[in-house]
Amino acid sequence: MDDDLPRPKGDHAGKLAAEPLDSYSQDELAGRILLLEAEIARVKAHQAKASAHRLAAEAFFKPPPGAGNT
Fold first, then answer.
1. 8 A C-beta contact, residue 44 and residue 36
2. Cβ proximity of 58 and 51 under 8 Å
3. For residue range 43-54, what is the model confidence (pLDDT) as tens digits?
4. 3-state DSSP call for residue 23?
5. Residues 6+ away with beta carbon under 8 Å from 59
């Protein structure tokens, strides 16, 4: 599965932010904004899913109240 592969190193967001925008038309800029907003939504959705997964795992493996306190 691709999740097992090492991620490429480097600051991709920094490279994207440093790209000159002077040559882009208004339509191209609008398209870029839509693409970036969609990517932000995708990352936020993944973050929420990962957070919920972690909370569920922590709740599952948490000892019941009073267990082990003797």
1. no
2. no
3. 999 999 999 999
4. coil
5. none
